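Course exercise 7: structure representation. Students receive a sequence record and must write out the corresponding structure in token form. The form below is the worked example handed out in class, using Antibiotic biosynthesis monooxygenase (103 residues). Read each field label carefully; the graders check that inputs and outputs are placed in the correct fields and that the protein name is recorded exactly as given.

STUDENT ID: A-19
EXERCISE PROTEIN: Antibiotic biosynthesis monooxygenase
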Amino acid sequence: MTHPENGPIVLVARMQARPGKEQELRDALPALVAATRQEDGCLTYVPHQGLDDLGLLVMHEVWQSEEHLRAHSGSDHLRRFAELAQTLTVGGIRIERLTELAV
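STUDENT ANSWER:
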């Protein structure tokens, strides 16, 4: 198993759009994604939308290290998006931190 301090960190960020705010939330993603993909240590940053629930947005992220993830967490573009997400989502952004299992 890869230890988070020594290897990639996988995040799943889930957002449930408030009814009627689905498009506004989706419209905020391109700026966030473009800026984040330029960050040092960003290996994967891919938004997804629910097939059965169009208001569900899920971001799949892979970061080279905990240090890179911390830098992303403090970035202006993520801060701006998170503030907007508070008004456009039910419950804000829910983060699940994962590490790959060697099987």
